[in-house]
Write a structure and sequence with these properties.
Radius of gyration of chain A: 26 Å
CATH superfamily of the largest domain in chain A: Hexapeptide repeat proteins
CATH architecture of the largest domain in chain A: 3 Solenoid
Number of domains of chain A: 3
Structural class of chain A: alpha/beta
Number of helices of chain A: 5
Distance between the termini of chain A: 84 Å
Strand content of chain A: 25-35%
Helix content of chain A: 10-25%
Oligomer: homotrimer
Shape of chain A: flat
CATH topology of the largest domain in chain A: UDP N-Acetylglucosamine Acyltransferase, domain 1
Amino acid sequence: MTVSFTCNEIAEAIGADLVGDGTTLITSIASIDTAGDGSITFVSSPKYVDALKSTNASAVLVTPALVDDTAATRLVMDNPYLGYARLTHLWVSHPSMQRAPTIHGTASIADSAIVADSVQIGANAVIDADAVIGAAAVIGAGAYIGCGTVIGDGTSVHPNATIMHGCKVGSACEIHSAAVIGADGFGFAPGEQGWEKIQQLGAVVIGDRVSIGACTTIDRGALENTVISDGVILDNHIQVAHNVHIGDNTAIAGCTGIAGSTVIGANCKIGGAVSIVGHISICDDVLITANSFVNRSVTKPGSYSSGFPLEPSDQWRKNAVRLHKLDELSRKVGRQVGKLKS
Amino acid sequence: MTVSFTCNEIAEAIGADLVGDGTTLITSIASIDTAGDGSITFVSSPKYVDALKSTNASAVLVTPALVDDTAATRLVMDNPYLGYARLTHLWVSHPSMQRAPTIHGTASIADSAIVADSVQIGANAVIDADAVIGAAAVIGAGAYIGCGTVIGDGTSVHPNATIMHGCKVGSACEIHSAAVIGADGFGFAPGEQGWEKIQQLGAVVIGDRVSIGACTTIDRGALENTVISDGVILDNHIQVAHNVHIGDNTAIAGCTGIAGSTVIGANCKIGGAVSIVGHISICDDVLITANSFVNRSVTKPGSYSSGFPLEPSDQWRKNAVRLHKLDELSRKVGRQVGKLKS
Amino acid sequence: MTVSFTCNEIAEAIGADLVGDGTTLITSIASIDTAGDGSITFVSSPKYVDALKSTNASAVLVTPALVDDTAATRLVMDNPYLGYARLTHLWVSHPSMQRAPTIHGTASIADSAIVADSVQIGANAVIDADAVIGAAAVIGAGAYIGCGTVIGDGTSVHPNATIMHGCKVGSACEIHSAAVIGADGFGFAPGEQGWEKIQQLGAVVIGDRVSIGACTTIDRGALENTVISDGVILDNHIQVAHNVHIGDNTAIAGCTGIAGSTVIGANCKIGGAVSIVGHISICDDVLITANSFVNRSVTKPGSYSSGFPLEPSDQWRKNAVRLHKLDELSRKVGRQVGKLKS
């Protein structure tokens, strides 16, 4: 099964203007360096103009400014990177990549569950009591949908993902494998015989067009809900603790952890391996670079960072020792400044 | 199905003294700001006394000192937060929230497994050879219990959790989804053709009343066991390497990693995203704040920290460059001090 | 079922020279301190010579230099630690530890899948369309093998692991539970209505003798493949983003994250909880210590570090405040040096 499209078909599908031979047949998308006969590639930045001139691609997505820099068939649009995104959808929507809507015979679906038409439910998936599965949703093999949980139209839950009871996932979402939505928040009260569990009575509510990565966990709220708003994209291995709120279209990279009750605004970009303490707020439009330690609220849009960057181990050992005496060093310098002034 | 209790029933269940109308009907638990008619809330701290005075809650858990600060029905006890914890149990123990003990028809249970009465085993769960499932245990859909593993009475293993062979989980534990107990420790010897695996012949032994979060992994020991003691609570996304021991009632927040053979004492509180190196000891009653790097043993109870806190990226870039020269800076200051003294 | 071997059998199996009574019966492997009658232990380093002299082990793996320091039966080889690794394999290869190759009746295997002889497929495992399972492979209970994915000979996929479509895993690999191979890379283009997903058209290609830990995720490439080379060992909770390449025999400890398109050389050793930014290169033979932040390419073999080590919280609070003014402090000292010189 080979996926192939003419440049005419591609131009129409992604909304680009065609310059050159529209009948050119495209069988793969490739990066500009590896593209060959039958490939389409894209150039978003003028710094690739030399690569554009020498590419072997049969077609190129380019901005109007670069339209004369290649002999390949051109698909012209203001944002070729967005064009590339749309192109990839064309690929996976090809009939050879599609599976018919079916419910596998080994899936276990509770009698009280409500399953819409044209869903696809994989082998050994489990849909528990009173769950609701929306139209054209895809529930992967071995995935678990808990009691009363609602999965919106067109949402994909990948194999072995787990969504606990009483949660709500919007439409057109994607939840990757081994993600866990709606596990109990980490709530315990100290008692005389040790920790006493606080049952987590809230749930997780996820908006539309949300993407949740593999092994990402979003805990249910203690009393109210944990909320992930429309258009949020979460990478793999993210921990979202109970009662966190994440605003529209915020993007968070892998291995980041967000402690309980923290509120993150809309349109933020948070890098990988960031740790964010609980009970703080981050306003809209904040960028936090990778590996940062967010130990306080951020009230002004902008870019924030922290972290000790890499150096040779010998050098690090010396600097790290000094770090423990930085306050002392600063005081010493302060006293010297005083002496020099006096 | 509505959960409802009278204040009389609640007072008796959680061991509080009642002041006011014991017939007041309660249908929800809420935070003090959002509580309305039919809600019960709690106040643990005098700083919420104003909120207490203005709350719309129908009932409030309060300390004896605050008993006169509200017109709502009062449930009086020394530790209202603990009362709240117990209240949440009352909620989930309500008949409308309970499932009858059943073994789902699609669960796969080995002939040699021993399954006690009144267990609940979900769809497509797998109980492998010689496993033992204690009374009133709950094994969620798609969970896997390995050969010879013992699950104690009243323990819940949530959907899609994995417990490998030969492990022991005590009673009244809770293991959340996608947790993996008893995977092989990371043991390899360098050989001539590359790494040679060291089979991990130990297991994982977990005490009673232990809580293990979603996507948390606890590896089996190399020769002896990895040990999690009674009352330990582990949040999500924690990595516990082989041969680690964690003492009674220690609490660890999400995304923390503990390398091999490290021993952590009892009653410690370890924050989120902490990384702890291998082969060290942390004594009892140690608090480690979030995002710390524990690169040495801790032999004295107390609070410990590390980490570079957040700042604007421009400022960070300048400071980070200087960090690489901190040793040099310290030496320079030392020489100046010498000069000024001479 | 007791595992037991004579020292003669052990010597032959692991390629050691025997000194002493070859008929000594061994029933367990133990560390030198806990070894007793019937145990075998090993000493790799002269610093354990005192322990060696006083051990109660029935047999000891030793280097030629230590052969006279014990009365136990000796198995002599240059690398006793490697001998220990091989010994553990002897243990798990004992007939009492083996399971017969079988395909469980509840496993779901697509008609178009190709499954070799002598495989072992667990309960409720799912082998999707066109997947290929090599000879003597083991697919654990509840594991998912996606459409067209190829699993090499002798590879073990543990319970509840997920391998998505179109991936290739070599021979003699081990993939632990809740690992996710081939989830979508985190690729989105900013559009007018929010993020537009870039479908990930590459796959994951894994070489031979690769070990992948529990809850470790390896994302599929955007256009080309994510590549894990022969002999790589990855611990638990590692995130490998799309288009990363990891070279032969590189070892990575738990909780480390590698962002997209980064290339890591061969024979590197990367500690736990390291965060590595995207689009950089790390050359062969690089050691990175635990908790480091790798924010730039590394072009020279050697040892690298970063990170703020632990200190008492009071001291940390003071030092952390000063860290924000390190650039200012450095400038101040520079000016003083100028004054002192003038």
